[in-house]
Design brief:
This protein is of the alpha+beta class. It has nine helices and five strands. The longest helix has 33 residues.
Length: 289
């Protein structure tokens, strides 16, 4: 009995440390622990910088909450062209200026040409769209209408599209400005300033296009041409048959001289050709002998 108790005691004293050592040196235990730590770190959300996060969010086309209204409606660019034949050019120009002034318009350009058979005055007129048709009618009464045309270009879709894009881009500029105030590192500041520069250039381009459309819509353009035919202009005298005959003979002689000069310009080619022919003839004579 005592021997059995002693044997059991010795067995547990030796076996317990062995189990403890095996448990600590088990590689599967360490692998699972390390794997658990790795998964925990990878599953944690990465904090994006404010600049990168906003840059990924905005694409330049999303809507916004700006209070700036988008003007909708019909936006039409009107253009007119008219050619008039008048008896007195100076008097006609005075009438044109009076009618333009009466319709609250102005002249933006003028060009005068004096030909041998006529005098011509070209005038570019800008007038409010509401007075466009009335002014075209008034100008037609100044002289004989040789040609007349009116064109209308609907730019309503482009007008609204530019306003919407400008609204969005201004909101983007505002957000970048707010982010710039909270930037802490030099790299973030430089990155935000670069994006601000690009977005401001785009805003300036859109604003320029919008100003141009507003100007063209609000003020129509009329291209007017006044022409006065001259009755007593000097006509070139008619030439006789013999004068034209001698002139053509002279031109034919000039053409012949030009042909001779062109042939002589190829003198090197002619010398080579003569040498080749001479060699062939001499070779054939020597062969017959």
């Amino acid at each position: 009995m005592k021997t059995t108790l002693k044997f059991s005691l010795y067995f547990w004293i030796l076996f317990i440390p062995f189990l403890t050592a095996c448990g600590q040196s088990d590689p599967s235990y360490k692998t699972e622990s390390a794997s658990a730590d790795y998964i925990t770190e990878e599953s944690m959300p990465m904090t994006e910088s404010p600049v990168a996060s906003f840059a990924n969010y905005q694409d330049g086309t999303e809507g916004g909450t700006s209070n700036e209204p988008i003007v909708q409606g019909l936006h039409v660019i009107k253009t007119g062209n008219m050619q008039l034949q008048v008896q007195d050019l100076d008097k006609a120009k005075e009438e044109v200026l009076q009618k333009v002034k009466a319709n609250k318009g102005f002249t933006s350009a003028a060009n005068y040409n004096d030909y041998s058979s006529s005098k011509q005055q070209t005038i570019t007129i800008r007038v409010a769209s509401s007075n466009f048709e009335n002014l075209m009618k008034d100008l037609g009464s100044i002289g004989y209408i040789e040609s007349q045309s009116q064109n209308s270009q609907d730019v309503s879709e482009e007008f609204v599209d530019i306003q919407a894009r400008l609204k969005t881009k201004r909101e983007v500029e505002t957000r970048y400005t707010e982010i710039l105030k909270n930037a802490k590192t030099i790299s973030e500041i430089l990155e935000i300033e670069d994006k601000l520069r690009v977005i401001r250039e785009e805003i300036e381009a859109k604003e320029g296009r919008l100003r141009y459309l507003k100007d063209q819509v609000s003020l129509s353009t009329i291209n007017l041409t006044l022409t006065q035919k001259l009755e007593n202009y000097s006509k070139p005298p008619k030439r006789s048959f013999f004068s034209r005959l001698f002139e053509n003979m002279g031109e034919g002689w000039s053409d012949f001289l030009m042909f001779v000069v062109g042939v002589m310009r190829l003198w090197v080619f002619w010398i080579l050709l003569a040498g080749i022919i001479f060699g062939i003839v001499k070779w054939r004579k020597a062969r017959k002998k």
